[in-house]
Structure formats: C-alpha cells, structure tokens
Specification:
One of its GO terms (biological process) is neuron projection development. Interacts with OPRM1. Interacts with palmitoyltransferase ZDHHC17/HIP14; the interaction leads to palmitoylation of GPM6A. It is a multi-pass membrane protein. Belongs to the myelin proteolipid protein family. The protein has helices spanning about 1-10, 15-50, 60-95, 95-100, 105-150. It is mainly α and about 170 residues long. It has five helices and no strands. The protein has one domain.
Amino acid sequence: GCFECCIKCLGGIPYASLIATILLYAGVALFCGCGHEALSGTVNILQTYFEMTRAAGDVIDVFTMIDIFKYVIYGVAAAFFVYGILLMVEGFFTTGAIKDLYGDFKITTCGRCVSAWFIMLTYIFMLAWLGVTAFTSLPVYMYFNLWTICRNATVVDGANLCLDLRQYG
C-alpha cells in the first residue's frame, strides 16, 4: 500500500548528495555572513577611529572597494547556490533507483560523463575555494585584531584615534 510506496520513494533519495548540499549551503552562508560582517565592521572602524569619510562623486575610494567586495561575495553565494542545485539534481539522476528505472546503456553512460564532469568541476572549485579562503582570511584576521586593539585602547587627549599610524613612518 502506501507504506511500500513511501519506502520505495525514500530509497531513491541520494542522502550523500543531500548532506553535501546542506554542507555547501552552510559553508557559503558562513562565508557570506563573515565576509559581510568583516567588511561592514571595517567601514565602521575606518569612519570611527580613523576619521575617514566617503569621497563625493564617482571617485573610487576604500569605501567603494569595500562595497564592490560585498557585491562579489553576494555573487559568489548566488553562483554556489545554483551550483548546489545542479549537484543535487545530478545526485538524484545518478542514484540506483533511477538507473534501475531507466537502465539503458546510453543513459547510464551519459550519467557517468555528467558525474565525471561535476567531479572535475567540483575539484577545480575546491582549489579555487582554498585560494579564496587564503586570500580573505588575512583581511578578516586584520579586522578582528584592529577591532580588539581599538576596543581595548583608552582615549588619549580627547582624540578618537585608537592607533596612530605615524609611528610606522
């Protein structure tokens, strides 16, 4: 009856792909949230402690660059959301239940080629993510160090500066 139908339907779910998709979305959300928080905090520190203001007009300043980096983060998040959906669909089509239903040699050969393509693409994305992680971890690390210094610094002579860069030249 209905129970056997539900068990058969649940047997076709690619649980490994489902878990991998959830992990992908969690990682992208963490990257997007941490990057946004670090960049917004950097703007706040620059305006509060270093008395920097946005340039008027169409001048590219540090604030414009920070806004561009935010949009890049949002674009990466959207692209990997779509990529996660593609991988999930590919996982559904390459499960054993679908192969049993459409067991033709051409379909399974095409499925193997698609799977190999996604494995290669995922490997390339993994290497790219290692580079992105290395590239973005330094600004986040510098932001949190500067935030800690500015939070713990005492205000001297009524100035709102927490770090005097003149001592470094």
